[in-house]
Amino acid sequence: MNKVMELDQVMGKVHDGMSIMFGGFCGVGAPLTCIQKIAESGVKDLTVMAVVATYPGGHFDLAPLFANKQIKKFICSHVGTSPEAVQALKTGDLEIEFFPQGSWIEKVRAGGAGLGGVLVRTGLHTMVEEGKEKITIDGIEYLIEKPLHADMAFIKGYRADKWGNVEYRYTAINSNPTIATAADFTVAEVNEIVEVGDIDPQRVGTPAVFVKAIIQGNTFKEHKAVYHDIWASTGQLK
C-alpha cells in the first residue's frame, strides 16, 4: 500500500509517443519537479493535455517541453500564454486541439468517470462543431464531446499520505482533482509526505484509489520561493 516512489522509478514508465495529462493552471498547482525531469529525459512525440500552455510569458512549467519539441500534440483550451508553444505551432512542430475551457474539463471528468461523453451547447454552429455528432433533447440541440483519457497524469498536491490520499492547498485544487481520475497511472507530486491518518479525511481532495505513485517535490518553503521569484520577475509582486 506504500505508494511513495523515487522520481527516477516513475520516469521509467514514461516513453515516446504516450499521452500525458498535467494538472495546474498557468503554472499554479503544476507538478514542476516532474515536468523538469520529463524535459531532461528527452522523451518525444508526446500527446499532452493541460488546461493552458504555460505561465503567461512562458519560461516556466510546461515551457521546456514545447521548447524541446517533445510535444507532438497539445489538447487544451488556451495556448497564447506560451511563446514556446506558439513558435512550435508556427514551425509546424506542434498540433493543437482546442476546446472551450468548460468543455475541456468536462471531457476529462467524463474520461475519469467512464462516461461515453458529455453534452454541451458551447460551440454550436461554429467551427467547434465540425466533425462532431449532435443530438437533440427536448427540442434543444447539443454537441457530443467525447471523453479525454491519458496513459499517465501528473498532478500537484500539498500533502499526501503513503497510501496516496492527497490534500490540496488553495488554488492548486484547480484542475488537479479531475485530472487525477482520468489516467491509467496517476503520479502525485507533493510538498510533504505524511503517515496514514495525518490528513483529516475531510481535507482529502483526491482519494488514494486514483493515485499510483507519490513523489516528493519541493518542500513548501522551496515551493513558495519558486513562485515568489517567478511572480517578482514578471511584475506580479513588488
UniProtKB/TrEMBL annotation:
<protein>
    <submittedName>
        <fullName>Acetate CoA/acetoacetate CoA-transferase alpha subunit</fullName>
    </submittedName>
</protein>
<dbReference type="InterPro" id="IPR037171">
    <property type="entry name" value="NagB/RpiA_transferase-like"/>
</dbReference>
<dbReference type="InterPro" id="IPR004165">
    <property type="entry name" value="CoA_trans_fam_I"/>
</dbReference>
<comment type="similarity">
    <text>Belongs to the 3-oxoacid CoA-transferase subunit A family.</text>
</comment>
<keyword id="KW-0808">Transferase</keyword>
<dbReference type="Pfam" id="PF01144">
    <property type="entry name" value="CoA_trans"/>
</dbReference>
<dbReference type="InterPro" id="IPR004163">
    <property type="entry name" value="CoA_transf_BS"/>
</dbReference>
<dbReference type="InterPro" id="IPR012792">
    <property type="entry name" value="3-oxoacid_CoA-transf_A"/>
</dbReference>
<dbReference type="GO" id="GO:0008410">
    <property type="term" value="F:CoA-transferase activity"/>
</dbReference>
